[in-house]
Structure prediction request, 318 residues.
Amino acid sequence: MKRTANRTQVPHKLTEPHPLVAQAAGVFAKLKPNQEGLLIPKVIGCLDLMVSPPVLERALLILDTLIKQMEATGWRVEVAKRGQRQTTVNTGTAILPFVLVEEVEVIKHPRPKLKDNPYKHGTMAWLDYDLDLPQAPPPTIQLTGRLRFRYSAGSNRIRSTWTDCERFVLEECIDTIIDGARRVEVRLKEMVVEEAERLRKREEMERQWEEERRQRLIADQHRQLVQSRIEVLEQHIGRMQKADLMREYARRIEEQVTNREIANATEWIRWVRSYADTIDPTLESSTPSAPTDSTAILLSHNTTTRHQCGCPRTPIPV
Prediction:
C-alpha cells in the first residue's frame, strides 16, 4: 500500500497480505464457481466477498488495501464468527458492515413465437388446440467484471456505494471509501439523535392526545351533569306548579259550595290538599339534592320510585 500525491495506491501484487485477506485467499482458492460463475464461500469467518475467478485477485488487492488503511486510521475490521457471513469495520462509535461484490447483468429472453395461432379459427378454438404453449427460457446471468463496494449500514442522504465506471475504478476510490465510512458514521449518529427526537415528539403528541381526550371526557361529564340538574329542576317546578294548581282548585271549590253540600265538599277538599302536599317538592322531609356526577340517575327515569306523573310513591291520602 502506497500513497502517491495524497492518494492511497493499490499495489499490483498481493505481498504480505492482511491476515483476513490471506485467510480469504486460501478459502477462495479451493472454491469452484456456482451456476452464475461466482465464487461464494459457505464458511463462516471469511470476508464478505462474491466475485468471479477473473477478478478475484483484483478484489483481494482492493480489500487488502482498504483493511490496512482502515486499521491505520485506528479502526478495527472483523468478520463474524457465527451466524451469517459478515465483515464489519468498528470505528469506535459505529459498526459498519461492508461487502465487495461483482456486478452481474440479468438478461431476460422473450417467449418463442407460435407457428400457428390458436385464435385465428375463432375465439373458442384454443379449447381444442392440443399444444403445449412454449414458455420463455429462464433469464441468464452475465458477469460484468465491475466491482461494487457498499456499506450496508448506509443512508440515502450519504453515499455508501462505489462501483467501477467509465470515470474511475475502485482502486482510485480507497480514500473516498474511507472518508465515506466517516460520513456514514456521522450520519448514523444523526439518525440516532433523530430517532430519539422522533420518539420524544411521538410521546409528547400521545400525551397531548391523552390530555385532550381527558378534557373531552370532563366536558362530556359536565354537560351530562348540567342536563341532569336541568331535568330535575324542571320536574320539581312542574310538581310544584301542579300542587299550587290543586290548592287553588280546592280554594275555589271551598268558596262555591253551599251549606247543604259542605259535608261532601269538605272531605274532597281535604283529600285534594293532602295530595297536593305529597307531590310538592318544597314540602318533602329532606331537601332535594341535585345530581353530583355524570352517572347520576335522573329522577324522571326512576320508574321504580316515582309515579308516571312524576310524584313520589308516597301513600295517597284517602
Summary: Residues 2-107+136-172 form one domain. The helical segments are 19-29, 56-72, 174-256, 262-279. The first strand starts at residue 2 and ends at 4.
